From TrEMBL:
It comes from the Bacteria. This is PF01973 family protein. It comes from Leptospira interrogans serovar Copenhageni str. LT2050. Residues 96-268 form the 6-hydroxymethylpterin diphosphokinase MptE-like domain. InterPro entries: MptE-like.
Amino acid sequence: MEVSPEILRYALSIFDYSDFLESGRLRILLSPILEEDLYSAFRGISGFPISFIPHRGSNHWKKNSYEELRFISESFFHKKDVNISTLTRFEKIWTRNFISNLPQLTSMEPIRSLFGICQGKADVLVCGAGPSLILSLNDIKTYRKNLVLIAVDTALMVLWNFGIDPDLVFSVDPQVLNTKYLEGYNGNAKIVFDPTSSYHSLRLPGKFKNGFFTSSPFPLIRILSSKPEEEIGAVDFGGSVSTNAVSLAEKMGARNILLVGQDLSFPNKLAHCKGAVLEERFNHIESRKLRREYHNHKQMTALPVKKAASIQGGEIRTNEKLLIFKKWFEEHPKKIFGSISAKTALF
């Protein structure tokens, strides 16, 4: 990987690298380097051990530029390791969920039927379950009729208990706990469902199940379609259900996309909004040795602490996982109007 075209040109002029380039043993990337460039360059070899060997002279010459290349690469491989760990952890669960969901999926519509539905004439509000959601509920209720509202499943019951009924509910989590987010809901929203999500969700009572299903990178999706991305429709995956929901809003043809409850940080030392299932379940399991404050502390310290710029100025506490989501939002600025949460990381 090289920052300066002049140095690369000079290096190629003093030695013939043709054989190495043709065999694939040498792959050259020139700045600026995008994530898709790294995917292309490391296709087929990304599973091998990777060593970063900086050129000492170049590092002294333009340290910031070469350190940026290193940071981009390390972030890419960290994300890849997370994806591999996720696949290893959930492969059996995904298979069981997909097979169990098949009968219900046949009565649902492919998500492609939602693409372009807004025609650039409607604004879409994507509602996450971050701690600041509780501060925005009154505003959401006031302007609800002016917006298409997509809620992530974690935020559904917070909205519903406040008298707000979304248009769509996005669900992607394969774990059984995911079903708890939907229990007790009997509104008019339609679910947007990943075929590998918990099969218990589609066995709950309620009209929301007559919704839409997405394509999936999981190979068994070809049972439903030989060309799943074309015939079913796919949304971009950024590691979070909120990124999926924003991608859907983009493909619906939203005029503007607004985000709420997407803090990418830990306001008031909380990980989720008060009233969300993940917080309220502590009403039942909390004990002298398992306090909700301790649980929140564990979530905040599970990964190394990072700092990010706040929308209100200054810095706020976050971590590597949330910074991956932040980077995804920054790379999708086409129609994202911005976060309207009171306390969030700036992107």
